[in-house]
Amino acid sequence: MTEPLRTALDLAAAGVPVLPLRVGKVPFGNCRACAKNACGGRPNMKNPGSCECTSVCHAWAAATTDPCVLASPAWASAWREAAAVAYHPGGAGLTVVDLDNAAAVAWARETLPATRTVQTTRGEHWIYRGTMSSSNAVRPDVDIKSLMSYARWLGPGTGTMTDLPGAVRALVVKKPSAARPVVTVPALAGGGECRHRTPAYLERGIAMAEQRITEARSAVHATVYRTFLAVLSAHGRCGCLTDEHIARLFAAAQTKGESPRHCTDAWTNARTRLGL
User: Fold this and answer.
1) Is 45 a residue whose pLDDT tops 90?
2) How far is Cα 270 from Cα 275, in angstroms, rounded to an integer?
3) What pTM did the predictor assign?
4) Which of 217, 232, 270, 271 is deepest in the core (most CB within 10 A)?
5) Beta-carbon neighbour count of residue 126 at 10 Å?
């Protein structure tokens, strides 16, 4: 057994979804059947239309805690070539603030609440308890790695992990421009204003989606997926969905017992099915 695989199995046993990285800190590429997501989505998923490939495909979405998958013959060659182990922070209920140099670390120490830290080759990872949308370059040399992202495993780190603060969430909120341009919304084929740009329509849709998930008495996982699919069908292409709306949907699903990872998987599968 290689050292990366041994590390991966230890992390998986602790509930941390992991995957191998090749040289350059990048995931292994998709197999031919999964190239360009032709298979319909990430592997090992129960949602309709998901990929059933046993290879190490789909980058962060390949991360798993299943030891049978990690040690399977289909993954063996990847572990032999692996240069490092990565994990899906969002799948473990975590957010990593990736500080890429000394200046970024100094900014974090002055701005953010203390939490568990891990030394990297050039800076530090600050790890918080809680999930959010991932985003690169939220400020100079600072990336956010949580949902739908991966981070390199560099050890458990030091210090006490604390809850994800609003100061970190605020880093990915798009600030409105000083001068807001006038937007002309094209008319629909039947005439009238585009309903996707109407705040009341969007709010009603999100509220109905929350209610649908909350009232589910069985098949919760399937209900969450179908609800996410409906929301994205209506609002996924017009740019009106915000992180706050997505967080509301995820919160409703988690209240019904869905894990952060299942929420992320359902959302990703719905996006893939719609070609978003």
Assistant:
1) no
2) 9
3) 0.64
4) 270
5) 26
